[in-house]
Amino acid sequence: MTYARIPESVIAAVLRSHDIVETVGKYVHLTKHGKYMKGLCPFHSEKTPSFTVTPEKQIFHCYGCGKGGDVIRFVAEIEGYSFPEAVKTMAEQAGIPVSWSAPSAGPSPVDSARDKLREAHELAAKFYHYLLLNTAQGREAMAYLRSRGIGEKLIDRFVIGYAPKGWDTLAKFLESRKFDLGLMEKGGLLAAKQDGSGFVDRFRGRIMFPIWSRDGKVIAFGGRILGDGQPKYLNSPETPLFAKSRLLYNFHQARPAIRKSGTVVLFEGYMDVIKAWSAGVANGVATMGTALTPEHAAALRPHADEAIICYDGDAAGQNAVLKTVPLLERAGLRVSVAMLPGGLDPDEFIDKYGPEAFVRETLEHPVSVTKFKLIYLRKTIYS
Ligand SMILES: [Zn+2]
């Protein structure tokens, strides 16, 4: 995909139609300090604000991490868009015609690599999904998913797939589509052979869960091993597309339900999100193999007033709850905790007692943070 050069007049119109204070204000709580507005930076983790917006100049700048620019840069950065994608989205929002067709100056190399990676991820997701549903290789994976209560509806909804055991199933597929395999390695789909003679698939013998950006594009994968083997869960590495500290699994699908209810349910893993979805929980999201960060919390705040934390019932999960609460509260969310009995995680609870019981007995009756802390304290003292 190549971009036509975007006319300056379109960029100017987009800048005019999006006030930076209003746009940034959807993500960051800003307070006025003379000529500046100040807030906690959404791009790095901090406790005292070093993120500033200057309305007069319509720019933002962070003295902590150095990020800065105009409102288009801000949207590109926070939504994970390339510059042209941000212009296009913002132009559409403002009703500015986007059919620019000036002679192409070609995309910048960075934007072009990102586009290639996005395209490869979309294709890989469809490829894995096809292999799961339609080939003999996918049969064992299908049987496993069914045994875990994940039927075809969920498989389709979450575009679950299967990466076969062979060394180069995806590598060959991408090669046949003329992708640069070196770039695919940087994007986390392939791994370089140790002797430097080529590339192999990063994910093999795994059930594949696409991970989407906020605007619903596949940008990474989580893979669960089929059968025994290590590691049990393997995620894409950090890549130009995939920033774990900012991304929440299922956010693009959950956003409408989060907005409608004003509530987000936070899980620890994608299996929990998927199983909860089968219980009618459409506002669930999960972090991807990391603890919740201030960036995650900031991303939720424009959409929700309330967060219900639903982490594993074991000691590690409960410790994680304690660490997560202040981050969400600092972002301005009301927080409560859904308790799971017997050290179960949400996925296991649903397997054992069913989806209805999960909603009825845990999510509908979350406890306050104060009560959670008392229960936690009692457990840690007396056990
Ligand atoms: Zn910063």
UniProtKB/TrEMBL annotation:
Cofactor: binding details: Binds 1 zinc ion per monomer.
EC identifiers of the protein: 2.7.7.101
Zinc finger (CHC2-type): 41-65
Cofactor or coenzyme needed: Zn(2+)
Catalysed conversion reaction: ssDNA + n NTP = ssDNA/pppN(pN)n-1 hybrid + (n-1) diphosphate
UniProt comment concerning the protein's domains: Contains an N-terminal zinc-binding domain, a central core domain that contains the primase activity, and a C-terminal DnaB-binding domain.
Role summary: RNA polymerase that catalyzes the synthesis of short RNA molecules used as primers for DNA polymerase during DNA replication.
Family: Belongs to the DnaG primase family.
Name by which UniProt lists this protein: DNA primase
Originating species: Paenibacillus cisolokensis
